[in-house]
Design goal:
Structural class: alpha/beta
CATH topology of the largest domain: Rossmann fold
Number of helices: 13
Radius of gyration: 28 Å
Helix content: 25-40%
Number of domains: 3
Number of strands: 21
Distance between the termini: 93 Å
Largest sheet: 9 strands, mixed
CATH superfamily of the largest domain: P-loop containing nucleotide triphosphate hydrolases
């Protein structure tokens, strides 16, 4: 009988398609050397992930009918629909999620090894289990395929997590995980990580393209049917992309990426994809011994210590205000001009072409003779200045160093510089100015065209038409 006969198939490690025989390349994606031999087991068992998990969701086709969008909106409580996360840490996470955690959503969190992905989700799990606004116990299931439950508990103890409704489970079998989730009926599920789990009956080793895709699809179907949000941890490749097929990012609802320098204690959480909110938002955290802590004033990361306004060490420093999503950041830009050396420019954190343009405009339109100077430009804390709102601060820092005249404490610069030396408007100028006012800054230099309309309480607004007026007003 052929019923229990095993057969071998060749699976493309790039696109996941299967072949009955070996070829030198994959005919579907065109990649060479990606076909690997796998034993597909019983012919009867070699089924798709959809069939494997069919038993978890009864087929109630008769009850599943199209519904008017108005009826759906009427029965939803838009205010309390999302699951809110309390505290400073929770505020940072739900800002990136778009205002809270959506029931039934599938969230993928990626990042470099050791950046804090597991710590982030363990703290999120603790917050969700402690949030009992509904009056019912908020059970949360944390599943790990990489650590034992004792190791997770030890990390939770270090993070001072004492909630009684956080359940730990160590398994790599998706069917077992979903079985336990059905019994427990948790408020949320965390799976760490998607590259360590597998589905029985699906060809491919753990972490292969086919397994990752089918496991993610199984968890997606479970999340949508049960309205239980599911978090997935995703490993990254050497290039920084999330490991696995590109379709993984299409399957999930939200893709978050956690980043941070090894030399810095600060971590940034960005949304690469978000079906329920903006992808422009940014969450800022500080990694402490007790875990991640939300940073309410991120500008402290990018500003160095100012000792006194009389110190000559302040020459060559200027403060810019940049936007990342809806948040305004204050960053410090430093410049150093060395006279009598061969001309050369070294920039860090600013586009080289942008820095060359700003320096050329200073020489041509403001009349400063920078030709015989070696110029260094640096953005504090490794921040990369990608928008034009920091142009004026770069120019002010260069002028300050060249003129050996410190910029007074409490002064910030917001403007784009044109080739004619004119100062131009930048987006969300009012929000940037309001941020400066809240942080106690005394003076802000902006384009003259905007100064007429803009007024800020407790702070002097200096409107300048071009670079010459800025130099005359500040130095």
């Amino acid at each position: 009988s052929k019923k229990g006969k095993t057969r071998s198939v060749y699976v493309c490690q790039n696109c996941g398609n299967t072949k009955g025989q070996w070829w030198g390349y994959c005919k579907d994606c065109g990649e060479t050397g990606t076909l690997k031999l796998f034993s597909a087991g019983s012919v009867e068992k070699n089924v798709s992930g959809k069939n494997v998990i069919r038993s978890w969701f009864p087929n109630e086709i008769s009850e599943n009918k199209p519904v008017r969008i108005r009826d759906v909106c009427n029965r939803m409580d838009a205010v309390n629909w999302r699951i809110h996360l309390p505290g400073t840490f929770g505020d940072e996470v739900q800002r990136v999620l778009g205002g809270g955690l959506v029931p039934g959503s599938l969230v993928l969190v990626g990042g470099e090894p050791g950046v804090g992905k597991s710590t982030l989700l363990l703290q999120v799990a603790a917050l969700l289990s402690e949030e009992v606004s509904t009056g019912d116990p908020a059970k949360v299931l944390y599943v790990s395929g990489e650590e034992s439950i004792e190791q997770i508990a030890n990390r939770a103890d270090r993070l001072q997590i004492v909630t009684e409704e956080l359940f730990l489970y160590s398994s790599t079998d998706i069917e077992e995980i979903l079985q336990q989730a059905q019994v427990l009926s948790p408020k949320a599920i965390i799976v760490d990580s998607i590259q360590t789990v597998y589905l029985k009956g699906v060809s491919g080793v753990v972490g292969s393209t086919t397994q990752v895709k089918e496991c993610a699809t199984a968890l997606l179907r479970f999340a949508k049917k049960s309205c239980i949000p599911v978090f997935l941890v995703g490993h990254v490749t050497k290039s920084g992309d999330i490991a696995g097929p590109q379709v993984l990012e299409h399957i999930v609802d939200v893709v978050l990426y956690m980043e941070g320098e090894k030399s810095s204690s600060h971590r940034l959480l960005r949304a690469i994809k978000n079906r329920y909110g903006s992808t422009d938002e940014l969450g800022v955290f500080e990694m402490l011994q007790s875990g991640l802590q939300g940073v309410s004033n991120p500008s402290e990361m990018f500003l160095s210590e100012h000792h006194s306004t009389e110190s000559h060490y302040l020459a060559g420093r200027a403060v810019a205000v940049v936007m990342d999503g809806s948040r305004a950041f204050l960053i410090e830009i430093q410049a150093l001009c060395i006279v009598g050396t061969s001309g050369g420019r070294h920039v860090n954190g600013v586009s080289s072409s942008r820095a060359d343009m700003i320096i050329s405009v200073i020489m041509k339109q403001a009349g400063l003779k920078l030709q015989e100077n070696r110029i260094f430009i640096n953005v504090v804390s490794g921040f990369s200045l990608s928008e034009t709102g920091g142009d004026l601060a770069v120019a002010a820092a260069v002028c300050s160093s060249f003129l050996e005249s410190p910029i007074p404490k409490g002064v910030a610069f917001i403007a784009e510089i044109g080739l004619g030396g004119e100062l131009r408007m930048v987006p969300q100028l009012e929000r940037r100015v309001n941020t400066l006012s809240k942080l106690g800054y005394e003076k802000c230099v902006i384009p003259k065209s905007a100064a007429v309309k803009l007024q800020s309480q407790g702070m002097e607004i200096v409107g300048c038409k071009d670079l010459k007026e800025m130099i005359a007003a500040i130095f």
